[in-house]
Amino acid sequence: MPAKKKRGAQTLVFDKPPVLTSWASIAGPKEGQGPWGQEFDWIMEDYLFGEESWEKAENKMLRETVKKALNKRNFDEADAEILMAGDLLNQLVSSNYAARQLGIPFLGLYGACSTMAESLLVAAILVDGEYFERVVAAACSHHYTAERQFRFPTEQGIQKTLSSQWTATAAGAVLLEPVGTGPRITAVSIGKVIDMDQKDANDMGSAMAPAAAHTIKTHFSDLNRPSDYYDLIVTGDLGKVGMAIAQQLFIRDGLQPEPNYSDCGVLLYDAIQEVNAGGSGCGCSACVLCGPLLKKMISGEINKLLFVATGALMSPVTSFQGESIPAIAHAVAIEN
Amino acid sequence: MKTPDPQRWKKIETEEYESLVQQVKPKPPLLKHCVWAFIVGGLICLLAQLIMNYLLYQGIDKVEASSYTAVVMIFLGAFLTGIGIYDELGKRAGAGSIVPITGFANAIVASAMEFKREGYIFGVGARIFTVAGPTLLFGFVVAVLIGLIKVFLSS
Fold it and tell me: In angstroms, rounded to a whole number, what is the distance separating the alpha carbons of residues A212 and B7?
């Protein structure tokens, strides 16, 4: 007998769709100057955020975002029952160290830049399953901590390629509850790891686009929904290159009528901000969701949103060893 | 009917995908990059030449003058890295600012600055040559080989 809440191959639906009752976002200085600067709760004045190192700054970003999401509902850390969070750093240090201070029971998740969708979908399962009543899902990234771990020292004079992306300095956190007012998570699709043999670490969009297209296609076929069901489908951080490829893949996969589609990495910055193909990092999709997108859901501009955060699951070690880049995408359906 | 070999299918699929990627991926503006590299690289060399000519004019002999010039250029590369200008230059000039000796100074100072927060032993000390290391190692290897060739040729 098939599982009661599972549909098709990879999708889960909820009997009592968990409610996003509160959320918060923090954005770095560059992200604050972008087109959605007004939509974030907090814009950092500088990259150190009053700390001694970028790593400490990232940990503080996550901490403050979680607190802010709870405070908006007049809760504090003690009221949260479980925190699900992740970031890009080795051993998930930003999340682990943030959880150390927050004192909330904690599960660390690594899905590279797909972490926000991963934390949301696990949180939704825990709430729908009646295990918890106040779950926080969060993700964060910091440009300079990611840059030094995955690429070059920050002061080095390197010419970036046009397909490269800018890791966002940003964080987002969402509070999920079984009842309340706000948009609801009605279904989630758990992605497969897809690898199309892309090896260019300066072109994550091309590596991740097939994973996004696969998850989106599977989501529609699992739920038997028409491809224009959602007011907006938004991928995490495919950037301009990956977004263009994803659109081609939608056509190849026969997603007709054409969905209304965009990408957080393309949305986050202005063309003049020298980010090449766009933004990336866990914080990119997290802050766009917890800033402009959810605000638009509250105002009724968007009523049905499919949030598909995408992650490239490589490390510098695997890249140097000549391995290709595996990628994943998880879909979270958020509806009013 | 024979079932298709999954590995072969995967290969065809990835090849098709690669051609899609190549269609969509933006091509680098090669001419613009070359002009930038030529002008910035040229200006760095011109500055070094001016310094060297000045030193020669002051009556310093040629071998010493070139050493002093290198020292001044390395200092300038390091200094501009420290005040955050060299990476801005490198974004546009590419090889024009990497190839001259100032680029080498940039690679070392950038690493030193980056890893200072991990302390002087395991941070700066251990990782200062993260980027410049290969150049140093293979530079030494080639120097030894050329030295050996010279020894054999002159014996």
Answer: 22
Tell which residue, B23, B49, B38, has the closest CA to residue B93.
Answer: B38
| Greatest alpha-carbon span in chain A | 60
Cα A271 from Cα B38, distance rounded (Å): 27
Is the minimum CB–CB distance between A197 and chain B shorter than 8 Å? yes
Amino acid at A165: Q
Q: Where are the domains of chain A?
A: 6-177, 185-335
B18 touches A at CB < 8 Å? yes
Report chain B (155 residues): mean pLDDT per 10 consecutive residues.
75 90 89 94 95 94 94 94 90 89 92 90 90 92 96 89
Using the Cβ of A163 and the Cβ atoms of chain B, whether some distance falls under 8 Å is answered with yes
In which element (H, E) is residue A99 found? helix A93-102
8 A C-beta contact, residue A62 and residue A98: yes
Nearest-CA distance B2 → chain A (Å): 25
ipTM: 0.84
Which pairing describes strands A261-263 and A232-235: parallel, antiparallel, or unpaired? parallel
Q: What is the DSSP letter of A75?
A: -
The pair of three-digit structure tokens given for residue A258, joined into one six-digit string: 């054409």
Work out the angle at residue B53's Cα, subtended by the Cα atoms of residues B49 and B54, and round it to the nearest 5 degrees. 120
Q: Which residues of A touch B80 (CB under 8 A)?
A: none
To which residue do tokens 């899609």 refer?
B20
List, in sequence order, every beta strand (DSSP E) within A28-165: 42-43, 82-86, 106-108, 135-141
Closest C-alpha to A142, from A312, A228, A28, A273: A28
Kindly identify which residue of chain B lies nearest to residue A210, measuring between CA atoms: B17
- Structure confidence at residue A152 (pLDDT): 81
Residues 6+ apart with CB under 8 A from B103: A157, B77, B90, B97
- DSSP per-residue codes, A67-94: HHHHHHTT--GGG--EEEEE-SSGGGHH
Domain A6-177, second-level architecture: 3-Layer(aba) Sandwich (3.40)
Give the closest residue to A94 by CA, choosing from A42, A132, A54, A123.
Answer: A54
Whole-number Å distance between alpha carbons of B142 and B155: 20
CATH (one of 3.40.930.10, 3.40.47.40, 2.30.40.10, 3.20.20.70) for A185-335: 3.40.47.40
Mutant choice from B7, B111, B114 vs A, greatest count of A C-beta within 10 A: B114
Determine what percent of chain A is predicted with pLDDT higher than 70.
100
pTM of the model: 0.91
